[in-house]
Specification:
This protein starts with a strand and ends in a 16-residue tail after the last strand. By secondary structure, it is α/β, with parallel strands linked by helices. The longest helix has 17 residues. The radius of gyration is 22 Å and the shape is globular. It has 2 domains: about 250 residues, Rossmann fold (3-Layer(aba) Sandwich), CATH 3.40.50; about 80 residues. It has an 8-stranded mixed beta sheet with strand order 3-2-1-4-5-7-6-8, with helices on both faces. Strands 9-11-10 form a 3-stranded antiparallel beta sheet, covered by helices on one side. The relative contact order is 0.09. The protein binds S-adenosylmethionine (SAM).
């Protein structure tokens, strides 16, 4: 029997059942099924004592429906379900009281906040959750709703972003897509400014006419967290499996990256002129890959840049020239120009 409890909180759980035939189940059922399957697959390798799932819903009728629908699930024996009636803001404090270890970094905590609508979740709550060193958050950032807030409810946007800086950064009258994406950039910047939050990525959901509809933003304090989140999203992107879609069948474009070649060019521009070495240097490139590209590591980008003559790679003794992972690479110099007969600026330092 393991020693660790994982706490999962769905802060805006909803009724958990929908009449939409394409998406009959809500996020609580999706989470319970995914967790149960994972625990079953792990079998005796599982080191967790329990996964405690809290589902918070404010509206009484939806809460009642949620309780009823949770009763018909058949979770793994180590999964415990706790529906809570009330607001996220109030009830998360109860969850914290019951699980002090999950809010002090001893146990992992994952919060899913899907308020869907113009109100959002106040940034100071996000900050409080991410104060715990093993916590992660998956946020639904309603790009549509927040675009309307620019004109109609600017103070809500101040609260959701935890800053009024957007007021000078978002151009009045700019098109919705451009403004919404700018707001996402600001939100990500705010998250990355929190102590220890080094891994932030967003996944875009488009509506049937390919407009940006809403954005899921994930923030973690450990690279493994973002790796796993990207792997899951990538699977859904390929299968076309949907998350919650508010009653309409949406088209999903979770990853907007234009492919590794495009990413490798941006990667090269970011590091041009520098020599990156050692495991800390490799970590820096990995963080870039995780946060700024669809990839999980810099391997594919380094390969492209080396073939294109845009990097010089020094490998550790005995490592093959066709390996680009952290075990093989000692140092990478990002050249200002390709090494194909053209002048290369600067000496290579290894
Ligand atoms: C978009 S729905 C959630 C859908 C759910 N995540 C799913 O995929 O099935 C948002 C829910 O949050 C509830 N809600 C709104 N404000 C809330 C608050 N402050 N605290 C808790 N629940 C709230 C609404 O009643 C609504 O049911």
């Amino acid at each position: 029997m393991g020693q660790c409890d994982v706490v999962y909180v769905d802060g805006f759980a909803g009724p958990n059942e929908y009449t939409n035939p394409g998406h009959p189940h809500g996020s609580p059922t999706a989470a319970v099924n995914a967790i149960s399957t994972t625990l079953s697959d792990l079998g005796s390798e599982c080191i967790l004592r329990s996964v405690k799932c809290y589902f918070i819903e404010d509206r009484r009728d939806r809460y009642d429906h949620l309780v009823q629908s949770l009763g018909s699930l058949n979770p793994h024996p180590r999964v415990q379900l706790y529906p809570l009636h009330g607001t996220f803001e109030d009830r998360i404090a109860d969850v914290q009281r019951e699980n002090p270890m999950a809010f002090s970094g001893r146990y992992p905590l994952l919060v899913f906040a899907d308020p869907f609508g113009a109100t959002g979740i106040p940034f100071n709550m996000v900050r409080r959750i991410l104060e715990s060193p093993c916590s992660e958050i998956l946020l639904n950032f309603d790009a549509d709703g927040h675009f309307r807030n620019i004109r109609d409810n600017p103070t809500i946007l101040d609260e959701a972003l935890g800053t009024a800086a957007w007021r000078t950064e978002v151009r009045a009258g700019a098109p919705m897509d451009m403004s919404s994406r700018k707001l996402v950039v600001i939100m990500k910047r705010q998250l990355l400014a929190l102590p220890n939050v080094k891994y932030v990525f967003h996944f875009e959901m488009q509506n049937a006419s390919n407009d940006l509809n809403y954005v899921l933003i994930f923030a973690s304090q450990h690279p493994r967290g973002l790796e796993k989140m990207k792997e899951s999203m990538r699977k859904m992107d390929q299968t076309g499996t949907n998350l919650f879609s508010d009653g309409s069948v949406n088209q999903f474009a979770l990853f907007r990256d234009k492919g590794t070649r495009d990413a490798s060019q941006r990667f090269h521009s970011r590091f041009t002129g520098r020599t990156i070495s050692g495991s800390r240097g490799y970590d820096e490139m990995t963080t870039y890959a995780l946060n700024e590209t669809g990839d999980l590591n810099p391997i594919a980008m380094l390969r492209i840049l080396e073939v294109d003559g845009l990097v010089d790679i020094k490998r550790k003794q005995g490592k093959r020239s066709n390996s680009w992972n952290s075990e093989a690479v000692e140092a990478v110099t990002f050249l200002r120009e390709a090494r194909n007969g053209k002048a290369v600026q600067g000496e290579l330092e290894f």
